[in-house]
Amino acid sequence: MDTEVLATPTSVPEFDGSPSTLVAPLQQYAQLDGRTALVTGAGSGIGASIAAGLAQAGAYVLVQDLRPDPAASVVETIRATGGTAEAIAGDVSKPDDVRSIVDSLLESHDRIDILVNNAGVQHVAPLESFPLAEWNRLLGVLLTGPFLLTQAVLPAMRRHHWGRIINIASINGKRGDPGKVAYCSAKHGLIGLTRVAALETATDGITVNAICPGLVYTPLIEKQLDDLAAMHGLTRDDTLAQVYLASIPQKRMLDPQEIAAMARYLASDEARGITGQAINVSAGFIMH
């Protein structure tokens, strides 16, 4: 499959969040005609690329984001390239919002075939001084949200005996990272949720997998670099080089489309034998 190979950056350009380049050239694999998908946190970055990729494969995509305007912009891009999509707002950490999001798709299409739990937030601080409010916020979005959404979509998936749940975890679901106690805890938990859900749905035509991205060039990474630079007393460029790229065998950041390609495959019939897995897409950062 064709993906853009990023050269090792010597500096980090500003990320404008534009969805204008999210749709990769049409591929003939993993077609999803007639399927419906819900992608959370899809207003930019990885989520926007996944939404675009699923729509390109033929799925109707409900693009969810806490921020309505970025979600609407992604929908415009999908439609401009021949896909079908709608935008919806809401907070995935709130049960009432989750119910409204899921009901919206069920009311319009009477089925939910694909759920991508991608919504993400970050806060970087030493464990000793990590604010409880931030701990609760991150756990709410990164772990409680996927739990609530998985609960909400399973009845419809079981009714149709077909479903794909894809949790966007992280390499930090398999390792620790200083300053990220809440994020790492949530992502470890998300992999646990993935495995339990996979076991409980194994005979229902449903697969549940996690993707563990490494360093992906997204708005979340932009903010994270600033926070880590302040914490380590480094420039942003030095933080990128010393904290991240030094540990990555390919010496590069990933493009969001590389994560989207894996999500599209896991959402397909071709991937029906893959469940309960936490798959690394990390440029070699993690190999277990």
Report on the architecture of this protein:
With 288 residues, the protein is α/β, with parallel strands linked by helices. The chain has 2 domains: 36-213 and 255-281, 3-Layer(aba) Sandwich (Rossmann fold), CATH 3.40.50.720; 218-253, no CATH class. It is built from 8 helices and 7 strands. A 7-stranded parallel beta sheet has the order 3-2-1-4-5-6-7, with helices on both faces. The radius of gyration is 18 Å and the shape is globular. The model is unreliable at 1-20 (pLDDT under 50).
Shape: globular
Q: Structurally, how many domains make up the residues?
A: 2
Could you tell me the radius of gyration in angstroms?
A: 18 Å
CATH class of the largest domain: Alpha Beta
Task: Provide a quick synopsis of the model.
With 288 residues, this protein is α/β, with parallel strands linked by helices. It has two domains: 36-213 and 255-281, Rossmann fold; 218-253, no CATH class.
What structural keywords apply?
single chain; about 290 residues; alpha/beta; Rossmann fold; seven-stranded parallel sheet; 8 helices; about 10% strand; disordered N terminus
Helices and strands, with pairings:
Layout: E1 36-39, H1 45-56, E2 60-64, H2 68-80, E3 84-88, H3 95-109, E4 114-117, H4 132-160, E5 163-168, H5 181-200, E6 206-213, H6 219-232, H7 236-244, H8 256-266, E7 278-281
Parallel strand pairs: 1-2, 1-4, 2-3, 4-5, 5-6, 6-7
Helix pairs in contact: 1-2, 1-8, 3-4, 4-5, 6-7
